[in-house]
Amino acid sequence: MYVPWRRVFSWHCSACGECCLKYKPKLTFYEYLKLKHTGFVEERANRYYIRKVNGKCPFQEGRLCTLQENKPLACKVFPFLVKKNAKDELALYEYEGEEFYVYVATDCRNTVLAKKPTERLEKLVREAVELVLGKKRKVEEITCKTENLNFWKTPKKRCR
Ligand code: SF4
Ligand code: SF4
């Protein structure tokens, strides 16, 4: 389930890897073409996805993602979802005079609900919008932080 970002107090990623088991990430056509050679993508009714293999994303290794630079936008911004037309005041986020509607997935174990978001949560919303707009390519905040993870062995493999 997704809730408007103004109903979320905080979120962080602890690299549990569960979202890569639950979700079937949607791809843009360009992402689909880039990953087609792997054989792990599919097209259904002009929509493109990573297909599940044995109930999980085939690009997940342990809890981590092996795609990194080629990681789909939907994965980069998860648990955030940015829409253009929703007419939902609680989800409204204005970026450089343009209106967006931002939601947060509640099935991530670290999405904490409350009436008022923290400043950090607002920063994360801003990054999600910038990633969706292509103003930013590299995820800085919407990811796990290596210093919190004692199982970390290969720094190049960042979660989701
Ligand atoms: S976003 Fe949430 S569900 Fe996904 S790896 Fe991080 S903590 Fe786990
Ligand atoms: S973050 Fe990586 S491993 Fe997880 S669903 Fe996306 S592509 Fe797959």
In total, how many domains does the architecture comprise? 1
**First-residue to last-residue Cα separation:** 19 Å
The tally of strands reads: 11
Main sheet, how many strands, which sense, barrel? 4 strands, antiparallel
Unreliable residue stretches: 150-157
User: Percent range for helical residues?
Assistant: 10-25%
Bound molecules: iron/sulfur cluster
H/E series, N to C?
EEHEHEEEEHEEEEH
The general outline is globular
Please indicate the percent range of residues in DSSP E strands (runs of 2 or more).
15-25%
Mean pLDDT: 90
| Rg from Cα | 16 Å
Total DSSP helices: 4
Structural class: alpha+beta
Structure description:
- The chain has 160 residues and is of the alpha+beta class.
- It has one domain (2-148).
- It is 19% helix and 24% strand.
- It has four helices and eleven strands.
- Strands 1, 8, 9 and 10 form a four-stranded antiparallel β-sheet that branches.
- A hairpin with a 2-residue loop joins strand 4 (41-44) and strand 5.
- The two termini are 19 Å apart.
- Mean pLDDT is 90; it is low at 150-157.
- One iron/sulfur cluster (SF4) binds at residues 13-19, 78-79, 108-110, 159-160.
